[in-house]
Amino acid sequence: MTAAATALLELALRPQRRMLRQGEAVFRTGEPFTCLHIIHSGFFKLLHFGASGRQQLIGLHFKGDWLGFDGIARGDHGCDAVAMDTGEVWSVRYDHLLQVCVERPQVMTLLHTEMSREMAREREAVLSVCTLSTDARVAHFLRRWVDALEQRGLRTDSITLKLTRAEIGDYLGMTVESVSRALSRLARARLIEFAHKGRREVGIPDPAALSAFVHASSAPGPTLLQ
Q1: How many distinct helices (H) and strands (E) make up the chain?
Q2: DSSP letter (8 states) at residue 1
Q3: What's the whole-model pTM score?
Q4: How many CA atoms within 13 Å lie on the side-chain side of 171?
Q5: Cα angle vertex 143, ends 164, 61, to 5°?
Q6: Tens-digit pLDDT profile for the chain (226 aa)?
Q7: How many CA atoms lie within 13 A of 85 on its CB side?
Q8: Phi/psi at 135 (5° precision)
Q9: 59 CB-side CA count, 13 A
Q10: Disulfide: which of 80, 163, 177, 186 matches 167 by Cβ 3.0-4.6 Å?
């Protein structure tokens, strides 16, 4: 979302600002839907809990993204939205938002744009799981993270993975072992680098090379890394 769009929303909606620390939730599963939330800073993840209580990562969101669209149809939230670090969200009541959309068509356009982006992200995530090899899925995941940082004017040569290997595996439809092996193969191919022992700091020496690998892997008969 552009600076102009952010300024328009701040002026037109006068949102309630909320600071959240790592692990705190914007909303929880089953809570009544009343507001949409715009991420002003920080990183957030969406978690779904199955009937057995198993937790699964289903979404990642960055500055400028909107949270809570699932509640519009349901009337309550079907997942948890949790801060991955210290961040700020702007919350606005949905009924107030609809009223402002009538008075200011530009706000309606922004709302529709964000809904469309959310649908496109979900489609892209499904296609990644269905069409890419395990190595390419992890590379695509990292490339999307780089894109999100670049769009927000943040450094893109290094990513701090604020997710466990298990969470990444859930998100990509892979086992923990498959995620670890894929990261190791990408590192051996020099598409990524690990700066520290904990392997949470991932260097991205050439984002274009990462994109090229994903593109090549989506073609018929992709070549796996060794």
Answers
A1: 8, 11
A2: -
A3: 0.85
A4: 23
A5: 60
A6: 777 888 888 888 899 999 999 999 999 999 999 999 999 999 999 999 877 778 888 999 998 999 999 999 989 999 999 999 999 999 999 999 999 999 999 999 999 999 999 999 888 888 777 888 899 999 999 998 888 888 877 788 888 888 888 889 988 989 999 999 999 999 999 999 987 655 678 999 998 999 899 888 776 554 556 5
A7: 12
A8: -60, -45
A9: 25
A10: 163
d(CA 121, CA 50): 22
Which structure tokens are listed for 127? 């296609």
Q: Provide the CATH topology of domain 132-218.
A: Arc Repressor Mutant, subunit A (1.10.10)
- Per-domain residue ranges for the chain? 3-125, 132-218
Tokens of 164: 């466990």
Quote the tokens at residue 173.
């439809």
CATH tag, 3-125: 2.60.120.10
Q: Give the C-alpha separation, 120 to 71, whole Å.
A: 18
Place of tokens 């598409």: 191
Strands of 158-160's sheet in order across = 158-160, 201-203, 193-194
* Phi then psi dihedrals of residue 136, to 5 deg: -70, -35
